[in-house]
Each structure stands twice: as structure tokens, then as C-alpha cells.
Amino acid sequence: MTVETSRPEIEVRGLHKSFGTNEVLKGIDLEIGQGEVVCVIGPSGSGKSTLLRCVNLLEEPTKGQVFVGGTELTDPDVDIDAVRRRIGMVFQQFNLFPHLTVTENLTLPQRRVLRRGKARAAEVAAENLERVGLAEKADAYPASLSGGQQQRVAIARSLSMGPEVMLFDEPTSALDPELVGDVLAVMRMLAREGMTMMVVTHEMTFAREVADRVVFMDDGMIVEDGTPAQVIGAPRHERTRHFLSRLLDPAMADVEEDGA
Amino acid sequence: MTATDTQLQPRKKGLTRRQKRSLSRGVQYVVFVGVVIAFAVSADWGRLKNQFAQADIADQMFPDVITLALKNTVLYTLSGFVVGLVLGMVIALMRLSSVGPYRWFAGVYIEIFRGLPALLIFIFIGVAVPLAFPGTEIIGGTYGKVALALGLVAAAYMAETIRAGIQAVPKGQMEAARSLGFSPARAMVSIIIPQAFRIILPPLTNELVLLFKDSSLVLFLGVTLEERELSKYGRDLASTTANSTPILVAGLCYLLVTIPLGFVVRRMEAKAQEAVK
Questions:
Q1: Is-contact B244 B238, C-beta < 8 A?
Q2: Topology with regard to the membrane (chain A) (predicted)?
Q3: Which of A66, A152, A169, B131 could cross-link to A73 by cystine, CB 3.0-4.6 Å?
Q4: What interface predicted TM-score (ipTM) does this complex get?
Q5: Domains of chain A, with CATH numbers?
Q6: pLDDT in tens, B51-98
């Protein structure tokens, strides 16, 4: 092990985020080591997506610090575009560029941002389409692809930039159930290859099988943080138990008072 | 109780709803055709033909009406459109800027130039600019003045269209671009604006058609014989021949451009739809 590996790849310190008077994140501390796969779970409105979006500064934190690969993103003088090149982001709604073909979606960012040559960009694009199993869709437009295919293209687009870290914001939540598997398979492959991954998800099976750690968030705070076996298998907190029981068996949930 | 009664006997007497509808439509057709025929019969076609459709006068107009007048109309329109597009883009981006004074300036510009008749702008360019900057010539002579006058007006409308187009691109597109490391400006140019233009292609072409017609205002700048466009050319010839045929021919020349333009837009719209949907 080299010296670098001891330093966390992602480090979040005392992170607060408010939208107006609504405090969404109430002091988050989180470290993710190199090659670690961390799944963030929690009820909707718990702040997990906001936390993820703070890690590449799509949301500006109100207070606190975010480091990725040793660079402080919350430093006002940081070259944010340079840091973001090292951070891949996958969105719930895919956000492919609809006016470009699949290949162009992968090559344009490489050429414009990384200033790669045409041939090199095309080569990297082809490699990554191959990895996500969509080489034959190279010339298609995003609109002609299924949601699952679009999301795999979106992952390939991020990978083409050669990121050190990948962030996933509910990557399978907008997909028809039968399409979820293909996307999770790609993510599992990335995890196996040693990519550092932070995944906001509701896929408990994926979290249990692939994640090194599971973080349970509720009400803007981290409630529980441990191995999947610990957090999902034997949750220590009542809130975690409650959330998991509703998630794993929604048909058995009772009617509850809102805002309780 | 009464409700169920009426439900059981929905058409006691009179016409059904469907029958009423077809009757009403039949009446509309009859009235419409009647009005058209009435106009056609009551107009004095002989005199109209004399005044507007003299073949020999129409013959005289060719080829100048195309090679000179239509060519100038197209040139004026295109140069105004280009100036308007560039200026409109700048103003749209200022309008969307996070810098307060930019937004303020863009807002004032749009309100002023949308609120003034194009005619006044032409007079202003023709009179006020030479007064304010004596000795300076607007580059390109008449062509430059027309481009500037049409461009100033068009920019105000186009700025609002372009702004709406940019705002119609989903927020996720900018987020995805920024996440990939695009700077805000580069994301705007490479990702957002191309999509915005697909959205605003129809209104933008509409603006082109409006400019095409507004180019006739050039006569208020005073033009040489060589600089005449369709309307001026038609009017001049109409007064020398004491006949209105040149006006009709000039009008047909306008349609010669605007109607195919409409076709092209619909084709482009359909193609864009195909790519996005």
C-alpha cells in the first residue's frame, strides 16, 4: 500500500446545506477510501441526493468542506471544472445530450474538455461502449434507446473522461423494473475493477452484494454507517429498521401520520 | 329520479346532437361559399385586370425585378437577420446573466426596440446617426444601414425567443455538462444553444419572414436605383407606367420566397422532432 491509499478519496467534513430556511444537510462527516463502494440509502427527503450533489459541487454547500482526491472543492479559488473531470456523475434521468448520437455523446466532452484528438476520442468512446455492452448502438440517437440503454451510455460517457471517482444519483430509479439489471451489472463490473463509487440507491440487493459500506441517512444526518451486513442485515437504530421494513416489504407498512 | 328518466329517454324529440352538428356544418359551408361567390361576382374583374395584370408591363419588369429588386430584398433581409441573430444572442445571454446590470440593460433594450415601429428606427438610423457622428459612415453604405436598422429591431424579438429556447432546455443538460467538466460558457455553446436552436427554429424563421417584409422600409433611407428592393422597385415602376401591375408582380415575388420558406421550416421541424423524440 502506498501513502496515497491511506488518504480518503472522498472526504466530507461538517457539511451543512440549506435551501432557504429548509436545512437539508445538518452536519455530515463521511470518508470514502480509494476503491471503496459506498451505498447511501434513506427515505426520500433525507438529503442523500443533496449530499451526493455536494460532492461534485452541483449544490453549493452552506457550510463545511468537501475533498476529492485531496483537492478541496469548497475552496473558493478551486478550478472546479478541472476537479469535476476526475469525478464521474450519473443522474437518475440519464441526461444524455439528445441532439448528439451515442458516440458523439461520448466524444464531444473528451474533445471539448480534455482536448483529445478526434481519433483518440473515438477510440476511447468505442472502448467504453463495448464495456457497457452497447457497441452496436454507436450511431443511434438517445431517444431511440430504452431507459436502461440510455443509462449505460451515460455511464460510458462518464467513464470516457477517465474519472477517479464515480457518483451515482439513483441510477435505476427512473427505469422499468426489467431494465434495472443491465445497469446494475455495469455498476457491479466497475466495482470489481476497483472504481471508487458513491451510490445513492434504493436497490438493497445491490447494496448488500456490491457495497463495501452502507450509509443510512435520515433527516439530513447520517444515522448509521457500516458494512452491508451490519446496516441492512442487523440495523442498530430504530429509524433504520423502520425504513428497511417499509422498503423491503411495502405491502406490510401501516398508515402513518405525515411529518411524524 | 328525474335524472334517470331523461337518461332512459335521451331523444324524445328533435335532432340528436350528431345531427345538429352536421346540420350546423352544412349551413356554414353554404354561407362561406355564398360569400366567396358574392365577392367574385360583384368585383369588376375587367378593371382589376387592366390595372393589375397587364402582361406587357409585367414583361418589362423581367429580369430586373428578380436580378435587382428581389436580390436586394434578400440581401437586406439576410444581413439584417445576421446582425439581429448575433445581437439577439448577446442580449439573450445578458438577460440570463447573473450580473445584474447586464440583465437590466437587456431588459431595457428589449422593451425599447420591441415597442418602437421599425419605421422610426429606419428614420433614426438615416437621420440621427449622421447628425450625432458627423463625418462617419456606417460601413457598407445603404446595406450597412439596413442591416443595422433591421438588426436592431430583430435583435429585440430574437433575444426573447432565444432566451425562451435556452430556458426550455432541461436543467439536467447543464448539470450533466458541468459534471463532465465543461465550463459554463463552453456548456452553453456546445450543449445548450444547439438544443435551444432546435426548439426556436420555427419562431426564428417567422422572424426572418417578418424581416423580409420589413426590408421594404429601406426606402426611408433614400436609395439609389441600384439599391432598390421589391417594394420600391414596384412602386417606382407603377408610377412611371401609371399602372399597378408592378405592385402585383412585386407581391408575387415576396410569396415566391416566403411560401417555400414555410415548407422548409415544417420539414426541419419534423426532422428535429424525429431526432429528439
A1: yes
A2: Peripheral membrane protein
A3: A66
A4: 0.91
A5: 8-85+163-250 (3.40.50.300), 96-161 (no CATH)
A6: 888 888 788 878 888 888 888 899 999 999 999 999 999 999 999 999
